[in-house]
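Appendix B. One record, verbatim.
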Amino acid sequence: TTIDEQDINRWRLSLAEAIKDNEEPVLITTFRRYLTSSARPVFARGIDKCEYVVNGKQAGRQIITDHIVARLGLAMGAPVGEAQIVEISPDLLEAEFAFLSPGKAHATIFIPN
């Protein structure tokens, strides 16, 4: 099938609308622990008192895919953690978590078990 001009314009409008409604990141207040996998996800607590699994910039471009897949999973009704953008303060980083970069990161709300 081919994409016509009407479809392209509809997608442009949808993307512009989504970008306009930018979500506020949740500030991470406490790091719990990290896993030793290649992405080194970190378990953390946000200022909203939710527990998150954070994949920061240390995971590279994988975080883009993770965020998209999490959002698609929610849209499909799959049992996935809710995707969230979080903020990592430079003041929070310590030696054990030095591999993290301050700033915005991808996270999902942690679902135990």
